[in-house]
Amino acid sequence: MSSPEATPLATAQGNPARKKALTGVAAAVVVAGIAYGAYWALVLNHYESTDNAYVQGNVVQLTPQVGGTVVAINADDTDHVKAGQLLVRLDPADAQIALDQAEAQLAQTVREVRTLYANNSTLKAQIALRDADLARAKSDEARAQDDVARRSPLVATGAVGKEEFNHSTAALAAARSSVVAAQSAVLAAREQLSSNQTLTDGIAVEQHPNVLRASARVREAYLALRRADLLAPVDGYVAKRSVQLGQRVQAGAPLMSVIALNQVWVEANFKESQLQRLRLDQPVTLEADVYGKKVEYRGTVEGLGAGTGAAFALLPAQNATGNWIKVVQRVPVRIRLDPKELVEHPLRVGLSMDARVDISKTDGRMLADASRVPTTAQTNVFDQNNSGADAEVRKIIVANGGRASAIAVASNAAAKPLTRSATGAVASPTAAAASVATIADTTTIQPVANLK
Question: Which homologous superfamily does the CATH classification assign to the domain defined by 47-57+260-309+329-358?
Answer without folding.
Answer: Efflux pump adaptor protein, beta barrel domain (2.40.30.170)
